[in-house]
Amino acid sequence: MGWFLSTILLALIAVPLAAFALRFSAPEYFAVGVFGLSMVASMATKNIFKGAISTLFGLLIVTIGTDPFSGLPRFAFGRFELMDGINFLIVMIGVFAIAEVLHQAQKPTVHEKVRRFSRALPSWGEVRALLPTMVRSSGIGMLVGTAPGAGGSIAAFIAYNEAKRFSKTPEEFGTGALEGIAAPEAANNATEGGAMVPLLALGVPGSGAAAVILAAMVLYGLRPGPRIFTEEPVLVYSLFFGLAFGAVALLILGLLLTPYLAMLMRIPKPYLITGVTGLSFMAAMAITGLMFDVRLVLLFGIIGYIMRRFDFPPAPMILALVLGFMIETSMRRALIMSDGDWTIFVTRPISATILLLAILSFLYPILRKALSGMRQSGA
């Protein structure tokens, strides 16, 4: 339900939003990039300052390589392997795969008995009773998904709270109530379609999956943005169809393969983490064919493990790697347009509005926490 409704929203909203985005120039694209980073930095962790530090670290990595305007190397440390910069896929493999391997390796091995799974579907009566909850939660997920970086976790929490508030039996939540299960799942699924709206219309990924799609497009010479609807209309509408088809395919594959995928839990942990490590290093070698990238994967795996231990979120760093090039080039083009006048970002209405939203989104968690503390102290 959530996936289908979000696909419909994507088809309806993406084209008008892209038409509006044709009015964008370098200052507006810079503001959009900053807005995307502010959303992730403020929502990806309980500590907003750790999210900001993670974002700045990602932007620092982007500066490694060749200057896009002068063509001179910067922060390459004399290594030819760094002349083209650090591929963000290398960072993703290290931060997510290798860091998880290191995290699992330090945990004790616990052998749990795998239970049997059932393929039984909900009855029509249960589906009909849950339909209002699924529609409402899908709408919440779509709205949250259109905000860059908000993610399915936030949508799931909001949908769960709303389902509990509208439920006639809220006391059953937390005991396996069907509404409490359907609401966060519908919202979580709907965010993926919503996250494609800013990706296709503005070139800003709204989620981790959208960031991977953006990377795939860039690798094939495609740049998402308002012009993609006129330059590559077949690709755009094929993507719409693919999202709708994917919902059906995932349902079928989930019903067929879940009992067998659960058998992976029977693989001893030493063998499992060794296999994941080997596949990660093979993927790194496949990107450029350089052994240097394998060492980079290991380095970023250690960095990701340290970030995880100290509760620094990796999502802002990854999104900064994806958006960093656009932010830098847009900022420098805007300064060239204005002969070095920084006020160009606040004198143009669209860019000024987006930057204001970026500041508000970054400060919102701080203000909310301060107001909550004031209420508690007053009570």
Give a quick summary of the entry:
With 379 residues, the protein is mainly α. 73% of the residues lie in helices and 1% in strands.
Describe, in plain words, how this protein is organized in 3D:
The two termini are 42 Å apart. This protein is mostly helical. Strand 1 and strand 2 form a beta hairpin. It is built from 15 helices and two strands. A two-stranded antiparallel sheet has the order 1-2.
Name its key features:
mainly alpha; two-stranded antiparallel ribbon; 73% helix; 1% strand; globular
Secondary-structure topology with pairs:
Elements lengths: L1 H20 L4 H18 L4 H15 L2 E2 L6 E2 L13 H18 L18 H23 L4 H16 L11 H25 L5 H12 L8 H4 L1 H29 L7 H20 L2 H19 L4 H24 L6 H4 L1 H30 L1
Antiparallel strand pairs: 1-2
Helix pairs in contact: 1-5, 1-7, 1-10, 2-3, 2-13, 2-15, 3-13, 4-11, 4-12, 4-13, 5-6, 5-7, 6-7, 7-8, 8-13, 11-12
Number of strands: 2
Amount of beta strand: under 5%
Helix-strand string: HHHEEHHHHHHHHHHHH
What are the low-pLDDT stretches, counting only 5+ consecutive residues below 50? none
- Residue-averaged pLDDT: 79
**CA gyration radius, whole angstroms:** 23 Å
Helical fraction: over 70%
Secondary structure class reads mainly alpha
Count of alpha/pi helices: 15
* Major sheet size, sense and barrel closure: 2 strands, antiparallel
Using the alpha-carbon principal axes, give the shape: globular
Order of strands across the widest beta sheet? 1-2
| First and last CA, distance | 42 Å
